[in-house]
Amino acid sequence: MVPFRTLSIIIPVYNEARTIHQILDVLRELELVNNIGKEIILVDDCSSDDSATVIEAYAARYPALGLRLLRHRVNQGKGAALHTGIREATGEYVIIQDADLEYDPEEYNLLIRPILRGMANVVFGSRFMGGRPHRILFFWHSIGNGLLTFLSNMVTDLNLTDMETCYKLFRRDLIQGLQLEEKRFGFEPEVTAKIARVPNVRIYEVGISYYGRTYAEGKKIGWRDGFRAIYCILKYGLLAR
């Protein structure tokens, strides 16, 4: 059992052998406010490359980091990997971290402060508020993100600026108390709709940086995932009422 006030960092992994060491290097050096501890859980979703081997070698090289590697025997999708990691988390808080460096782990401290101050029990990191760096990439992606956030807000009655953000930090008992179903990129609208219905939930947003990737650099989400997100917004936010 990890000590009180530990942040469980859930990292879904699929074919990230070439770059996974980069995020692990950052996490290894990361210091959290108030001496909060780190529990790093990587879930390999049946990668076809050497991701698991690279992670095991890294864990052997830095045993004090206490990396936990969980493996799926068949590929199930990013959402399924997150389900596995969330279920196994033992820290007081849980955050989602992609295996690349589109998001900066140094900003965990920004997200966790509203919780430590007793103001929030869920914090979203918004790429679209505040004055932090934001890589300029795809126009239609930004329009799509805005539309999905708008639709999500309509059915949840929240006023988020970035529902699709990766950085969502939860008190562990809240996220583990949800019955999550979506196996792929529908995780974001589903978890948003379901967390919005938790009694007495207090959701905050803070501005974060975004160092996005192109498809040539490994970005995986596509237009089909956008249509699935709309379906999930309706299914979990509107029809579930």
Automatic annotation (TrEMBL):
Residues 8-175 form the Glycosyltransferase 2-like domain. It holds the Pfam family Glycos_transf_2. It comes from the Bacteria. This is Glycosyltransferase family 2 protein. It comes from Hymenobacter sublimis.
